[in-house]
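Reminder: ligand-aware prediction takes two inputs, not one.
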Amino acid sequence: MTIHDTPDDVRSAPSHFIRNLIEDDLRRGKWGGRVETRFPPEPNGYLHYGHAKSICLNFGLAREYGGACHLRFDDTNPEKEEQEYVDAIIEAVRWLGFDWGPHLYHASNYFPTMYASAEYLIGAGHAYVDSQSADEMRANRGTLTEAGRDSPFRRRSPEENLDLFHRMKAGEFADGTHVLRAKIDMASPNINLRDPAIYRIRHATHHNTGDEWCIYPMYTYAHPIEDAIEGITHSLCTLEFEDQRPFYDWLLDKLAEGGFFPRPLPQQIEFARLNLSYVVLSKRKLIQLVDEGHVGGWDDPRLPTLVGARRRGFTANGFQRFAERIGVSKSDSWIDMSVLEDCMREDLNEAAPRRVAVLDPVKLILTNYAEGQTEACQAPNHPLKPELGKRELPFGRELWIEREDFMEVPSKGYHRLYPGNLARLRYGYVVRCTGCEKDSTGRVTAVLAEYLPDTKSGTPGADSVKVKGNLHWVAASHAYAAEIRLYDRLFAHPYPGARREGDPENLERSFLDDLNPASLSIVTAQLEPCLRNAAPEDRFQFERHGYFVADRRDSRPGTPVFNRTVTLKDSWRR
Ligand code: ATP
Ligand code: MG
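Here is what comes back for the chain with magnesium ion:
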């Protein structure tokens, strides 16, 4: 696999192989100009960043070519689906900015057609009921190098098969005693064509169809039929289904012969799934992280779920930008997390107003500024958008600044506050540091300085004093304290759980071993006054710190709580 770690080498060409294919079909008039795609989640978990790639691709192509994209719940498996997941999926796709119009479907509504199709296949000699045990079936399946062996039940007559299938449906048999199999070729080099199972007995209650059925279609059988019923033109799926494509085509071809579906038939097209460093994108692992309490729930901002992303402050535009940038290809690769983070930065840089927050506050006292006096400084809301105007930052004798903006003994190249040095308080005055106060442990409790009255930003002559340091601050008299959650990557290693060079042979590494212990720290920050009334999901750039969002769960106007979405620069790139 290749590793892409800079945005440039994955910047998508104006086109990709799926677009080319669609345009080819349009030119040839294959579908009469129609482009119809689908996003078919199984409602057994929350959507993650990988699904966002698939959603942006399917809905994006439909939008681009004036077609439609269906949202289809692939709920043919009776065991796992839950309404909570259905609701979360609907909300996530909407949040990403897509609309399925009237095309919201449940695959379980197609059970009757799937059943009728199976009856047809049996009647036409293309399917049979196999009564071998699971072990016998496995043993007779053969291997990659060895052909399979025909089941002793393969020669059952269509009449006998139909009778057995009807009795399977009627509930006469226990789970696992019979399966319906497609009759293709037990010697096929493609194991998926060695008479794959298409219906199994499962006495289970389904969330939609209740106890109406005790036989359920296999996924590989159900999916092509779902596509054909809905008139899907291009059925996009991830690469692991490539070996299933011959069965997809075989099945729909047989059913078209039987008059079930018109030609042309939907075309399955495979693309590489998203693999992203520093996260895990498998439902099983995500469920484990939530269940074992490694994160605070499905919407924990560190989790690569779309609900988590939303709480983190990631944007729908950022995901669309990301999907365009990584493009689609036919070969598996890893995308570095910094590519996604850069897309979010680019979107937020445009969209987010600038504000001031001091995350690790220490007092700065201007000893020559009158006690009780305040004045207003003007700060632009967005440096790239003067039309957004300015806001007033109150200035006074006591200010909060970042603790790291003062050093009693400066290190080499340090241009901020140290005794004797000048620095600018951004949008305010230039100040000269005169010293500091400390407690008995030697910790600095206040930094002391004098301001230079003629240097106020925006007044004539403000720039007459040149300084290198430029600090942010908030006036202590007007600031107020708020909780800020500094989120970082959930894993400290790019490929969680992967073997490292030099690992002993017998070492079993779990992805949990790679959790980043510093993925969350909570601080009490001092904020400028106008942030107090931020509404949940309001996004800002806190100058010099990064992008932040008012938490959609815990934040209220008056008592905001902010999450760090992403820092201004990538601190992880090596
Ligand atoms: P599982 O196989 O564990 O059930 P899944 O992620 O395949 O999980 P689905 O609900 O079947 O879950 O996925 C819905 C759609 O999203 C499928 O079309 C699937 O191909 C696509 N998809 C899932 N994961 C990724 C990924 N990492 N990158 C791109 N597409 C993905
Ligand atoms: Mg799946």
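Residues 40-42, 50-51, 53-54, 237-238, 273-274, 281-283 surround adenosine-5'-triphosphate (ligand 1) (CB under 6 Å). Residues 353-479 form a domain with the Ribosomal Protein L25; Chain P fold (CATH 2.40.240.10). We will return to this case in the review session.
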